[in-house]
Amino acid sequence: MEASKLPGFLLRRGVKAAIVVLAIVICNFLLVHAAPGDPASVIAGQSGAADAVFLEQLRRQFGLDQPLYVQLWIYLKSVLSLDLGFSHRQQAPVAQLVLERLPATLLLTGAAFAFALAAGVTLGALAAQRVGRWADSVITVIALTFYATPLFWVGLMLVLIFSVWLEWLPSFGMSSVGVEMHGLEVVWDVAQHLLLPALTLGLFYLAVYARLTRATMLEVADQDFVKTARAKGVPEGRILRAHVLRNALLPVITFAGIQAGQLLGGSILVETVFAWPGIGRLAFEALLARDYPVLLGVFFCTSVMVVLFNLLTDMLYAIIDPRVEVAG
Amino acid sequence: MTVSRRGLLAATAAAPVLMRVQDALAQGIAPRRGGTLTTILTPEPPVLQIGVNNQGPTLVAAGKIFQGLLSFSPTLEPIPVLAKSWTISPDGKEYVFKLQEGVKFHDGHPMTAEDVIFSIMKFHFEVSPRARAIFALIDKAEAPDPLTVRITLKQPFQPFLLMFDNSACAIVPKHLFDGQDYRTAPAVQRPVGTGPFRFAEWQRGNFIRLERFADYWKPGQPYLDAIIYRIVPDSQSRRLALETGQVVLTQGSDIEPFDVPALRARPNLEVSTKGWEYFSPLAWIELNHRVKPLDDVRVRQAISMALDRNFITQRLWFGVGKPATNPIASTTRFHDASVKIAGYDVKAAAALLDAAGLKPNAQGVRFTLKHLTLPYGEVWSRLAEYLKQSLRQVGVALELESTDAGSWARRVGAWEYETTINFVYQFGDPTLGVERTYVSTNIQKVTFTNTGGYANPKVDELFATARNAADPKDRQAAFSAVQKILCEEVPQIWLMEMAFPTIHDKKVRNAITTGLGVHGSFDDVFLTA
Q1: What ipTM describes this predicted complex?
Q2: Is residue A325 part of a domain?
Q3: Residue contact A48–B406, C-beta within 8 A
Q4: To bridge B432 with a disulfide, which of A120, A129, B331, B427 should be the other Cys (CB 3.0-4.6 Å)?
C-alpha cells in the first residue's frame, strides 16, 4: 500500500465505522429494552417486599417513566459525548464499572490470546512439517479434543486436577485477598490465579489456530513457488518459514483479528467457573438484573473494539502480503 | 404522663447471649481475638446500604456494618442491640427505648436518639416498602433525651418490636443522609453504620472486605480482624472453595441442596439449617385464581393432595427444610400446630377432580396448566419437573416454561402466569409476612402482594382482627381461625418451610446464635486456633 493512500483510506473507513457503531448502539438499545421485565421489577422481586410506591420511585429514578424514544434520544446524546451513563442499581457511573473490570479482562483474554496464538501456530506448523507421521496425529487429536470439549468442563477438570487433587493452584479468584503482599509476590500470586483460567480459555483457540495453520500450510506447500524455491536449493527450514508459513498466515490473522476484537468482551463461562472479575460477568449479571446502562456500556465498548480490530486486520494484511490492496 | 410499665426487660431478653458465652466456656473455649473470616456472598449485591437495597446478600454483608435496635432469638424473643432496654405501655401504644451508651458510627460521630428517629421516620419510611407499611402507624416519635426514644402509635400494634431488627430498620447516620436523596447519597457507596465491622474495600466481581471497628461499643469485641466476602458465581466452584478450605463459611443459596449430603459427611465441616426463624421463608405453588379451573376449591385441594411433600424435602432438598403444614410456618408466631392441610392422597385427589366435573380425555389429561419455573437455581428446576410428574398422575398436565429472574418478577407482578413457585419471608409474625398474600385489599400488580387474586371476606376480617388486637390471646384466636379456613380453601399450595444451609469449618464459632443467623453482626464470632 502506498503511504499517500493511507489518510483517505482511514477517513473513509473511519466514517463507515462510526456509522456501524451508531447503528449497533441503536440496535442494542432496542434489543435490551425488548427483554421482558425492567430493573425496578427485578429489584422488587428480590427485595422480599414491595408496594406500588416503591416501583414508581425506582422507575422515576432510573428514568424508565419516560417514553422509549425519549430514553433512546437521551442515551444517544450521552454516548455521543462519550458518557456511558449511570447505573442506578449499583449507584456508580458505567464507565467506572467497566474500567474497574477492564484490567482483569484484558489480563485473562490477553494471556489466553497470546498463548493460543503462539502455541497454536507452532503446533500447526510442526504438524504440517511432519504430516502423516505420529507427531502430526498426536497434535491433530489434541487439537480436535480441545476444539470439541465445552469450555466450562475443561475448566472444572483443570480445577479438579490442579486445585483439588494436586493442590498446586487456587481454584478461583484473581488474587489472594486479605494477605499483605508486595512487588513480585503480587505478580506471582496473580500468575498462579491466572494460569488455569487462561489455559481453559486458550485451549479452544489453540485448537483453532493449530488446525488452521496446519491446513493452510499444507495447501501452500503444494504451490509452484515453493517447488521453485526448493529447486533453487533454498534450505528446507527457510522454505518453511519464509515461503510457506508467511503465506499461510493470512487466514490465521483473519481469525486472530476476530478473536482480538472480542478480547474486551471477556468470557462469561470461564469468568464464572473461575470467579474471575471480568467484563463478561459484569454484562451477564447486568442482563439478569436488567441494568440497562451497564449492559449497553459493555456492548458499546466491545463493538468499538470489534470495528477497530477489523480495521487493523485489514491494514495488517497489506503489510504481510503486499499483493493485498486495502480499499475504503 | 405517668405510665405503669410492663413489657420485656433487657435482663430476661439478654439471657440467650449470656448462655452462649457460658456454653463456650464450658467447652473450654475462650473467644480468641484475631484472624480473618473468609466466606462467600452470592449473588453480588448492588449496594451495601440496608434500606436502599434489601436483597438477601445485602442483608448478610451489611448486617456486619449496620445494627438495629433489637435482634431476635430463635423463638423470636427480642434481644437488646442498640436498644439497651425498652418498655411498652399497657395500652400497647407507647414504646420507649433506652439506647446503649457510647455507641459511635464508623466516622466517629456518636449515635443518638436523633439518628434513631431519623432512621425510622424519614430514611426507612422513604426507601423501604416493608417499613413504610408499618411505620405509617406511628403518630409521633420523640427524643426526651439523647439516649431515649419514645414512639407513640395511632393504635396498638402487637408485632411492632419485630420491625426493629437490623434487616427492617437499620440505624443510619442522620448527618450523612439528611437533606439528600437517600438513594443517591455518597454514603450509599461507602456505608457508615455502628456495627462491629466497617466497610473497607469492594472490588466488584471479586470481593468485599470489612475490617474490625476499633471503637465498637462492646468492649473487647469483635474478635475477628476482618471478614472477606468472596464473590463466586458458580455453585460448583463455591462447593470446591469450601472443600479446599479457601473459604470457611457459606450461607444462603451458596451451596445447592444436592451438594449438602456430601459436605455433611466431611468431618471438618458443620452443617446447620438454623438461623432462619425470623424470616421463615415458606415456599408454595403460586396459583393465579383468575385462571380456570384454579378458581374451584376442589381443584386446588386436589393439586395439593397429589403432591408428596416428604419427597420434596427429602429427595430434592435433602432434608434442608420441612414439609409445610399450613400457611404459617411452624417457626413463626401464632402457628397453630393442630391445623393441617390434607395429606398426600392421589386417589382422593382424583376423586375431587372427578367431582369438579373435569373428566380425563383419551390421553388421561383432564386439563393443562402452564408453570413458570422459578429461575433461582437448579433445585427449582428439579422441583418443577417433580410437580409435572406428580400432577400428571391425577390427570393434570403441567407445561413448564423457563424464564430468568427479570421476566419472572415482571410476569408475576403483572399477573401474567397460571402457576409458578414463590417463596415469601414471614418476618416473625403473620400480620407482617403472611397477611399480605391472602387479603383482598392487597391484590396489587406488584410482587409479594396478593398476586394470586384470592378473596374471602371472612379471611380479610380475621386478618384485620388479628392485626388490630392488642392482646396476643385474641390474635391467636383469629390466626387459628384463619389458618383453618385457608387450609380448607388452599388459596396457594404450600410446599415447604424453607431453611438455607449454613456450612462452616468447625473452627468458626458462634456463626449462628440468633433467629437471624448469618444476618447477625458477627461481633461474637471467633476462630479457634
Answers
A1: 0.80
A2: no
A3: no
A4: B427
